[in-house]
Design a protein that fits this description.
The complex is a heterodimer. By secondary structure, chain A is mainly alpha-helical. In chain A, about 75% of the residues lie in helices and about 0% in strands. Chain A has 19 helices and 2 strands. By secondary structure, chain B is mainly alpha-helical. Chain B has a domain of about 250 residues. Chain B contains 23 helices and 4 strands. Chain B has a two-stranded antiparallel ribbon with strand order 1-2. A two-stranded antiparallel sheet of chain B has the order 3-4. The chains are: A mainly alpha, B mainly alpha. The interface between A and B is medium-sized, with 32 and 33 residues.
Chain lengths: ~500, ~550
């Protein structure tokens, strides 16, 4: 393959996504109201095509830098891109009927989702800090709009505004941090910075360098919702349309982790003890705040919001371990988390009914045996989030905690275990309300309507949660293969 | 050994799952059909576990033994972390597997008229639970063991939480969180063992296999920590004295069949865990902690019995009697002598039989009268003679009357403990538990069965029907069988227990000085007694 074609090959899925996103924007205005579904179908088609092109051009052996030194073409990029496209695919399936029910605009939704996916991809494959920043901004801009997608809903507006203001500030901090690094090293490419840092030992002790690094970590901490930068999460998840909350809880988080892994291991390997300590404190705070906060929640969306904070904390353990097992644990966990959390949000988006009326735990009373096709998958998702064996969540936690334990972080692992024990309580609470409590007025459970597409995607998620719990080997090996390219 | 091409242990474990899937396919409204399918599954499940014992001494089975385990299945499962799908049973697991399949069937049979709503889901969970429990007794890979150990929590949680009594939610969540907290600590210890093994043999030899771990001989310091973590996990499950508070709640709120399974099988998972994992893996820590463990057992025996005596609720009484009986079981196991451990294991089976039966007995009057308060009853023997007979047999079995199973277990445990001179005082204290046991059980029997039949509602109560009698028949047969001819069962225990005690004899010889000065073991005398017992077993 010539270098020129390699450039396009390495970037092909993003080109496809972008082209289809623009196509949707052009076509959508000319569709009648009844035909609006068409744009959702185009977006699903685009995601599938991008996924196939990603599969066709794998780079399993070598790590190439293409596009004028802007992006990596390696298996890590391939795997993470596959993860993002899966997220996009499932979100579109869940959105299929949701958008119609809530009377939203399918065209705008689909194209924004595709743009968000491009942003996520760029964050994972970027080899240059500016590229990373651009990816982050594309993702953020799309999600700001998606969060406020219900224009006439006060909460949705609040959600979007909060996300926008805090997101803007954090982007600024990140950019400022990047400029510090640029000032020191005169380059923005990951390898370039690492080279300069490894040679010029004079820089290493400089407080300004640490400040720059710290700012970059803060910027990503916000995206991933690490404590103490997590405060926006529950409010934003509560207000945003449920499908979008689901997307936000897995998408930006996965992208943030994908970029963070590259940055900490390719730019900052020399300052490992320093950022490791920062991450240890952040992980402890994140896990405890997330889980303790979730206990008192009555709104299921807020509950999952807090729980998603906690899960970001568990994944930090992989970075803290800083070895192949920990890294591959993070990637595996991202997959596991994608299925279980997106599945849970998907079921919630079905239960809440038109206008998102039924979102408190109390509304779930007594529906357990009435709609087993939805409540049993939801139970599986919740048990998996809690880390009960035979589910993907258990294997993920096992690998992450195991990796941290191997690197002698006994205290941290004990706290993580304590935190996940706390989490069992509130996940079980949802199950208790569904199966073991009867409605306040006897016989008045909520009515649930669902489409075949939504049920299908719920079942797909449940299947993969169980499958990855039973046979995790294949994905674990892939993750291992991928993280080798991080050069740990 | 295979059944229709499926390795027999897989067949026994996963057969209930087939019934589970069939039940899922049957529409909700066909309740009778669901009940029939569940009962048939339970019965066949029991039948296909019988070849395990029938073929036990067949040459092909004996030749296929690996690490003292028969019917071994060993295939890679999660290669990345080195977890294997490793099944195998020795004599100890054999008895517990048979107990599980039998009690599982009886529990399903006993629910025929007790469960009236959500029939389909109820039987589905029962069968799921069955698979989970069987897996626990067969797994010899610690990762696999942990998976089964945790997974069976979920159906049990639903059984208590959905079909339980008035305080079911509290009981179910308490049960779940308590057990989970303990087992997560155990998981931590399993991971620690795993890394310890890797640090010695290298990453390529990563494994969770029990037998690989047994070869290592971990250093005492490490053993203590790992032992403590395992101890908390198992002790909560047993439950041993300070960790027992979840048990009465869970028992009282659970439906009858749930209690039977809970007492008969679930608690055995804890005691089994000690015998299978803690004893062979952590001998140094075991010897070190023996006085503490013994003290906890004795407190459990006496405290459980005293509290049981004061209960007004029949089910709570039986639940507390479990605390006492299991204290006795653990006493035998922790004595670390051949007779003691054998007695402990046989007492696990006895407890499953007699306490399982007692919960059924309580369930039968509860189904008729919807109360479990002792004062509501009295004089039932007048209109329920059959019931009175069975109740009496099980009461006597529970208190250890010679000729019935309880006697054998308790006698062996006390003998095995007494054989170690340093533990005599515990044996003497524990023996008082036997007396207290007789007191509360006989008093219960007297208050429920004898006296005048005064209450109007009680006069209308019908005696047992055929199905109910049938649930008790196998249990009575076993109680008498073990009571009269125990060596039939004990012979399966000899070899595996010997394997454990060999480790300890070596350790005690090695530590002769230390033991003599610190613990004052008359180890010569002990050896003599052990040898004598071995000979008498032949």
């Amino acid at each position: 393959m010539s270098t020129k074609s390699l450039i396009y090959v390495s970037f092909l899925p993003e080109i496809i996504l972008g082209a289809f996103a623009l196509l949707i924007m052009c076509v959508d205005p000319f569709l009648k109201k009844r035909e609006k579904v068409f744009s959702t179908i185009i977006s699903i088609f685009a995601i599938v095509v991008a996924f196939i092109s990603n599969l066709l051009f794998l780079s399993r052996d070598a790590s190439l830098i293409t596009f004028n030194g802007m992006i990596y073409f390696d298996f890590y990029s391939n795997l993470l891109r596959g993860l993002f496209l899966l997220i996009g695919f499932l979100v579109s399936l869940f959105a299929f009927k949701y958008i119609e029910r809530e009377d939203l605009f399918p065209g705008e939704f689909s194209s924004l989702l595709l743009f968000a996916l491009i942003g996520m991809d760029l964050m994972a494959i970027s080899a240059n800090l500016i590229m990373t920043f651009i990816g982050l901004e594309i993702l953020s801009m799309s999600t700001y709009i998606l969060a406020g997608f219900k224009r006439k809903n006060l909460k949705s507006n609040e959600s979007a505004l909060k996300y926008f203001i805090l997101g803007g500030v954090s982007s600024a901090i990140l950019l400022y941090g990047i400029s510090f690094l640029y000032g020191f090293t005169g380059t923005l490419s990951y390898r370039g910075i690492a080279n300069v840092l490894s040679k010029g030992s004079g820089f290493i002790g400089s407080p300004l360098l640490f400040l720059g690094m710290g700012m970059i970590l803060v910027g990503f901490g916000f995206k991933i919702a690490l404590a103490p930068f997590h405060v926006w999460t529950p409010d934003v998840y509560e207000g945003a349309p449920t499908v979008v909350s689901g997307f936000m809880s897995v998408g930006p988080k996965a992208a943030g982790y994908a970029a963070l892994l590259r940055i900490v291991f390719q730019i900052f390997p020399f300052t490992l003890p320093l950022w490791r300590e920062l991450f240890v404190y952040s992980a402890i705070l994140t896990m405890l705040i997330g889980n303790l906060g979730a206990i008192i929640q009555k709104n299921v969306k807020r509950l999952l919001g807090y729980s998603s904070i906690a899960h970001a904390g568990y994944m930090l353990l992989g970075i803290i371990a800083a070895d192949v097992m920990g890294m591959s644990g993070i990637i595996f966990y991202l997959f596991a988390y994608l299925f279980m959390n997106l599945g849970a949000f998907g079921v919630i988006s079905i239960f809440e009914g038109k206008g998102e009326k039924f979102v408190t735990i109390d509304d779930y009373r007594g529906i357990g045996f009435k709609y087993p096709q939805l409540t049993f998958p939801l139970s599986i998702f919740l048990l998996s989030l809690a880390g009960i064996p035979l589910t993907a969540g258990f294997v993920g936690k096992f690998v992450l905690f195991g990796a941290a334990l191997m690197e002698n972080h006994m205290g941290l692992v004990l706290i993580a275990i304590l935190a996940s024990l706390i989490s069992v309580y509130y996940y079980l609470k949802v199950i208790v309300y569904m199966f073991m409590k009867s409605p306040i007025i006897e016989g008045e459970e909520i009515e649930v309507r669902y489409s075949g597409v939504a049920l299908f995607s719920v079942l797909v998620c449940a299947f993969f949660v169980l499958y990855l719990g039973l046979f995790p080997s294949y994905l674990l090996n892939l993750s291992k293969e991928a993280v080798v390219f991080l050069g740990i | 050994m295979e059944i229709l091409g499926v390795p027999i242990l897989n067949a026994v474990t996963y057969f209930p799952l087939i019934g589970f899937l069939v039940i899922l396919l049957i529409p909700k409204s066909k309740e009778t059909l669901i009940k029939i399918v569940a009962n048939v599954t339970g019965f066949i499940g029991f039948l296909i576990s019988l070849p395990l014992i029938i073929n036990w001494y067949k040459p092909e089975v004996v030749n296929g033994m690996k690490n003292g385990m028969r019917y071994v299945i060993d295939v890679p499962w999660i290669r990345t972390i080195g977890a294997r799908y490793q099944f195998g049973i020795d004599g100890i697991s054999l008895l517990l597997v048979l107990l599980t399949t039998l009690l599982g069937f009886i529990a399903i049979l006993s629910s025929w008229s007790a469960i009236k709503d959500r029939v389909k889901e109820y039987y589905a969970y029962m069968l799921l639970l069955q698979t989970g429990m069987l897996g626990v007794f067969m797994a010899t890979d610690l990762f696999l063991f942990y998976v089964f150990w945790e997974v069976m929590l979920v159906p049990m949680y639903f059984l208590i939480g959905v079909w339980g009594g008035p305080r079911k939610l509290y009981a179910a969540i308490k049960f779940f969180l308590y057990t989970l907290a303990g087992s997560v600590l155990m998981l931590l210890a399993i991971i620690a063992l795993y890394f310890k093994y890797i640090s010695i043999y290298g990453w390529e030899h990563r494994t969770f296999s029990l037998f690989k771990f047994m070869q290592v001989g971990f250093d005492p310091q490490f053993q203590w920590w790992a032992f403590l973590a395992f101890f908390i996990g198992f002790a909560i499950k047993v439950p041993m004295f300070p960790f027992h508070t979840w048990l009465p709640d869970a028992h009282v709120e659970a439906p009858t069949a749930g209690s039977v399974i809970l007492a008969g099988v679930l608690l055995k998972m804890g005691t089994y865990g000690f015998v299978r994992f803690s004893l062979p893996l952590f001998p140094d820590a075991m010897i070190k902690f023996t006085p503490l463990l013994m003290t906890l057992c004795v407190i459990g025996i006496i405290y459980g019995a005293l509290v049981a005596m004061m209960q007004a609720d029949m089910k709570k009484l039986v639940a507390y009697s479990s605390v006492s009986h299991l204290g006795m079981t653990m006493l035998g196991v922790f004595a670390l002598t051949q007779v003691g451990i054998q007695g402990g294991v046989i007492q696990m089976i006895n407890h499953g039989i007699s306490t399982g039966a007692l919960f059924l007995i309580v369930g039968i009057v509860y189904e008729r009268r919807h109360t479990r308060l002792i004062k509501e009853y009295g004089g039932l023997s007048h209109n329920m003679p059959l019931y009175a007979t069975i109740f009496l047999i099980m009461t006597l079995s529970s208190i250890g009357l010679p000729g019935l199973n309880g006697f054998i277990g308790e006698f062996m445990i006390l003998q095995g403990t007494f054989a170690r001179h340093d533990l005599r005082v515990y044996a003497i204290l524990a023996a008082s538990g036997v007396i207290l046991g007789a007191a509360y059980m006989l008093w219960l029997y007297q208050r429920v069965m004898f006296g005048k039949l005064e209450k109007e509602e009680n006069k209308k109560m019908k005696d047992l029907n055929l199905r109910e009698v049938f649930t008790f028949v196998p249990l009575i047969i076993l109680a008498v069988w073990i009571g009269i001819y125990p060596s039939f069962w004990l012979k399966y225990l000899k070899a595996p227990v010997k394997k454990i005690t060999d480790i300890y004899q070596k350790k005690m010889v090695e530590k002769k000085v230390e033991l003599n000065s610190k613990l004052k073991v008359d180890y010569k005398g002990m050896k003599r007694i052990i040898n004598n017992n071995n000979m008498s077993e032949e």
